[in-house]
Structures are given as structure tokens and as C-alpha cells.
Write a structure and sequence with these properties.
The protein is mainly alpha-helical. The protein has one domain. Strands 1-2 form a two-stranded antiparallel ribbon. A hairpin with a 2-residue loop joins strand 1 and strand 2. Helix 1 packs parallel to helix 8 and helix 5 packs across helix 6. The relative contact order is 0.17. The N terminus is likely disordered.
């Protein structure tokens, strides 16, 4: 589940796994160039995941399975997407907008997770989190295939947007994800001087396998 990882050791193992793609790259080595306030916020993401405050136990299990599917996380280490999403919802930190045909984000999350459990129950007789991975993927694909159609009284495309916005915001706010894509972190206050496609700063590392598409590899 997404809440299991998040320590410095996990990031180190993750970075080592990316060494063949970005040889010699260490995102944490750049932390001394970040302003203090930013460094405190980012480094806190590497500590132990805080207790969940928004999701119930049942909702948390469903949300963890959903978020792991969206982020494509398998095995360890994992970016702690679930605790970050939970913290946002508990604090009411939304995107500042919502679709007019959707409930507010917290309600939409609770409702949509219950609908996932209902769909999984119909498909394989279990809650979504307990369903085999293939069945989880099938349930989610069915939601995507509806596009703007109705899903339990909600527009499926807008539900999918809700899930993916929160999942991607959390995933790509974590240094472990930065290590995976060779991103050196916040540009302030140092900034960038070599702007442009294919241009790198001295502290960046070129992708050693640019033609190796990780998404195609997972298909």
C-alpha cells in the first residue's frame, strides 16, 4: 500500500535503482541549493508517514489500491501517495476549483471509493482492495471507458480527473519520483541558465537510455 514508504533509506534504494538511467545523479545532493523553507517542506516528505486523518480504515484500503494502480507502484520502495492525499483532504487543501457537476472533493473521494468497492463486489465478490490486480485494473478501465458517461450518478471523466490530479500531485512532489525522472528539485533560488530542449545544467544528468519508454515497458 502507498503508505508504507517514505524514509531516506527508501530514497537511496530507489536512486540506486535508477543509476543506470541517470548515472551519478543524487537529487538530495541538490538540497543545499534550495531555500530553507522549501528544504524543510521537501525533506519532511522523506520522514515516516503521518497517521491518516481523513480516510476511514475501509476507505484507506480502497484508496491505497486505487492510488497504487494510478501511480503504477509495485513492490518497495513506494512514494507514500496515500498519506499525502489524506493530509490534503483532512486540511481541505483542494485545487481551488471543482466541476459544477461534482461534489466537493472530500465528498467525491468518499463516494467514489464506495462505488469502487461496489463495482468490485459485483465483479469478483470482494472489496476493491482485496480484488486481484487484474480485476482492479478491469474495474478502473471500465470507469475510464465511460468517458463523460454516468458512473453511479457522477460523470466518469470528472471522477477520473479527481483521482489522477490528486495522485499525480502527491507522487511528483516526492524526491523519490524526482530521482526516477532525473529532476534535481526546486530551482529557487539558484535558477536555471541553460533553458531549452535537450540542454542540461552542470548539476543535471542526461538520460542514458532516452529511447527506453518505461510506460511501453510496463504494457
Amino acid at each position: 500500500m502507498s503508505g508504507r514508504a517514505g524514509g531516506n533509506g527508501d530514497l537511496g534504494r530507489w536512486a540506486q535503482g535508477q543509476a543506470s538511467r541517470f548515472p551519478g545523479f543524487d537529487v538530495l545532493a541538490q538540497s543545499r541549493h534550495w531555500d530553507q523553507a522549501t528544504a524543510v517542506v521537501v525533506m519532511a516528505r522523506l520522514g515516516p508517514a503521518p497517521p491518516l486523518k481523513f480516510f476511514t480504515d475501509g476507505e484507506a484500503a480502497c484508496a491505497a489500491a486505487l492510488l497504487d494502480q494510478i501511480a503504477g507502484q509495485r513492490g518497495e520502495p513506494l512514494v507514500p501517495v496515500l498519506p499525502m492525499v489524506d493530509a490534503r483532504l483532512a486540511a481541505g487543501e483542494t485545487d481551488g476549483w471543482r466541476y459544477a457537476d461534482m461534489p466537493e472533493d472530500g465528498r467525491a473521494w468518499r463516494d467514489s471509493l464506495s462505488y469502487l468497492d461496489a463495482d468490485a463486489g459485483l465483479r469478483c465478490g470482494t472489496a476493491f482492495a482485496a480484488a486481484p490486480e487484474a480485476d482492479q485494473m478491469a474495474v478502473l478501465q471500465a470507469v475510464r471507458d465511460l468517458k463523460s458517461g454516468d458512473w453511479h450518478g457522477l460523470p466518469a471523466a470528472h471522477v477520473w480527473s479527481l483521482w489522477t490530479r490528486y495522485a499525480c500531485t502527491a507522487f511528483y512532489s516526492h524526491p523519490a519520483a524526482w530521482a526516477e525522472i532525473g529532476f534535481p528539485g526546486p530551482a529557487y533560488p539558484r535558477g536555471y541558465k541553460n533553458a531549452g530542449v535537450g540542454k542540461l545544467e552542470p548539476f543535471e544528468v542526461a538520460d542514458a537510455h532516452p529511447s527506453d519508454d518505461p510506460v511501453r515497458g510496463e504494457a
